[in-house]
Design goal:
Elements: E1 2-7, H1 11-20, E2 26-32, H2 36-45, E3 50-51, H3 54-60, E4 63-66, H4 73-82, E5 86-90, H5 97-110, E6 114-117, H6 124-130, E7 138-144, H7 156-171, E8 176-184, E9 193-200, E10 205-211, E11 218-225, E12 228-233, E13 238-244, E14 253-259, E15 262-269, H8 278-292, H9 300-324
Parallel strand pairs: 1-2, 1-4, 2-3, 4-5, 5-6, 7-10
Antiparallel strand pairs: 7-11, 8-9, 9-10, 11-12, 12-13, 13-15, 14-15
Helix pairs in contact: 4-5, 5-9, 7-9
Length: 325
């Protein structure tokens, strides 16, 4: 039985607690949260022991789930790793690049399992197209959310866009050549809306737009590659694949169109989506990596690479502001 300790029982922390209770082969030993009111509520609602000493909770568990604010990630991860505990930490991995780099090195030296909570990797719509081994050459992403004061301790880049940065880095098997970005602070002191262009060494280009001051929600990714177009709706959990050429199976709907070079067959596929709880699946994947001694799906290195690109974007936005003055 794998013993789990939870650090942070705010809004997202409660979602994690609910899912941990449904996962086989684990035991919740307790939680740590410095805020008395939510801690008392969680202790009573979940019949779970509250620890007021971080080290005592660490000593009582095999692995930790860290859902604390980003500025606490490094200190909590460092303590857990030094005690040889496996670590699941919410995105972003850490508050600064240097902190992230230190955590990557510490995790390697301690030989523990570490997973970063980039939950969109477990979104059913993304999983439906991942096995198709896409090779995108142009990507367009929109991630829009209504304003919510929760999470605004970091910019929209580290709050929302980092999800799409991680997805794009997992799809494009090439290094980033150039980044251009612009962003505006509207409701907070950090960018609340941003547009980014990422260019890769293999020629792929990705345009990303993220906003946390929109009137409606949207989480869509569209990618174009040789002879096909793939669309993923992370919010509605739907996917669509449109291909040039006659389908090789009976799952596609196809039709012919006339072009300047003759008749072309277009096939359309809506992949079957296995609806599932993405948070539960990512936590189960973390547990399986520990029990089977296999790599985590979203490693600390993946988390660091996404964070590194996010900070490059923030630097570009900051630089463009200075030059515009």
């Amino acid at each position: 039985m794998l013993k789990i300790g939870v650090f942070g029982v705010g809004h997202l922390g409660k979602f994690h607690l609910n899912n941990w209770k449904e996962i086989e082969g684990v035991k919740l030993v307790g939680f740590y949260d410095p805020s008395d009111a939510p801690a008392k509520e969680v202790a009573e609602t979940y019949d779970l022991k509250r620890y007021t000493d971080i080290d005592k909770l660490l000593d009582a568990c095999d692995a930790v789930d860290i859902i604390a604010p980003t500025n606490h990630h490094f200190a909590l991860c460092e303590k857990a790793i030094r005690k040889g505990k496996h670590v699941f930490v919410e995105k972003p991995l850490a508050n600064t690049i240097e902190e992230g780099r230190l955590l990557v090195n510490m995790a390697k030296e301690a030989n523990i399992k570490m997973q970063v909570g980039h939950v969109e990797r477990f979104n059913p719509a993304y999983l439906a197209i991942k096995d198709m081994d896409p090779n995108p050459m142009f990507i367009e992403v929109h991630r829009l959310a209504q304003f919510n004061p929760r999470g605004t301790e970091v910019s929209v880049i580290l709050d929302l866009m980092i999800h799409d940065i991680d997805i794009i880095l997992s799809l494009v098997k090439s290094g980033v050549k150039n980044i251009s970005a612009s962003g505006v602070a509207v409701m907070t002191d950090t960018p609340d809306i941003a547009n980014v262009r990422m260019e890769f060494n293999n020629g792929c280009v990705a345009n990303l737009t993220s906003s946390r001051i929109s009137m409606k929600k949207m989480r869509k990714l569209r990618m174009f590659q040789k002879d096909s177009y793939i669309s993923i709706d992370f919010l509605e959990r739907k996917a669509e694949v449109i291909q040039l050429g006659k389908p090789a199976d009976g799952e596609h709907f196809s039709f012919d169109i006339e072009t300047g070079s003759g008749k072309k067959t277009i096939s359309v596929l809506n992949p079957a989506i296995t609806q599932q709880n993405a948070i539960k699946v990512e936590l189960e994947a973390f547990v399986n990596a520990i029990k089977n001694n296999t790599p985590t799906v979203v490693s600390e290195i993946d988390g660091f690479l996404a964070m590194e690109v996010a900070h490059q974007i923030l630097e570009k936005i900051s630089s463009s502001r200075i030059h515009s003055k």
